[in-house]
Structures are given as C-alpha cells and as structure tokens.
Amino acid sequence: xxxxxxxxxxxxxxxxxxxxxxxxxxxxxxxxxxxxxxxxxxxxxxxxxxxxxxxxxxxxxxxxxxxxxxxxxxxxxxxxxxxxxxxxxxxxxxxxxxxxxxxxxxxxxxxxxxxxxxxxxxxxxxxxxxxxxxxxx
Length: 137
Fold this sequence. Notes:
Helices cover about 20% and strands about 40% of the residues. It is of the alpha+beta class and about 140 residues long. The longest helix has 11 residues, at about 60-70. The N and C termini lie close together (about 5 Å).
C-alpha cells in the first residue's frame, strides 16, 4: 500500500525546531500501516531536515552551524535575498532535505530520544512544505 501527502509546517524563526508532533498531527492515516517506510522530503533549498535528540540541543546546533557557515562573507555571490541566503543553502547541502524512517505498528519507529527537526536557516522564512511518501502494509 502506498500513501503520499503534502504537509505544511508553520513559519518558524531561524533555528532548529522539533516538528515530530506537527507532522504526526497531519498524518492520521499512519496507524493504517503495520510496517513500512516513510520518506519525508522538504521542498525547499534554504532549510533542512535532521533526526536528533528530542531534548534541548537546538541552541548548540544553531551556534555550531552559524559559526561553521558565517554570513557576510565577501566570496558569496548569491546574496540578493540577504546575508543569510547563501549560508542557508550551504547548510541545507550539509544536512540534507530528506529522511527515511521505518514504520512499526502504525508509528514512526524513532528511538526513545529521537525527534524530527526542521532546521530553518533563514532569518525570516515562511511556511515550509514537506512531501511524505509511505510504503508498507
């Protein structure tokens, strides 16, 4: 059985945001899958997805990536949308725009301390869209 659904995530400020619950609220049919795979694809190039600890590692992650890919570098040419534009694209390349998560007994089979993060790399981004494709039975 296959299912595909586009979900919309509320606009968030720059940073790392746990979105597991926001995704699950928009996937009531997930419980129809006994086992399978959920592929989550972020349809944007200036944000990314990650799985990490569902506790407070967000500030440390944001601090690291802001330092690793700083704004206002003279060698950036893609800056028409602001100083955060090119760094956001680089961070997206580093972290990636998709995740594949197993489904077990109608639930995402995340580890006990794992959560899904939207890694928002723009200072003022809008709503983000993700496409979720589920295959299973």
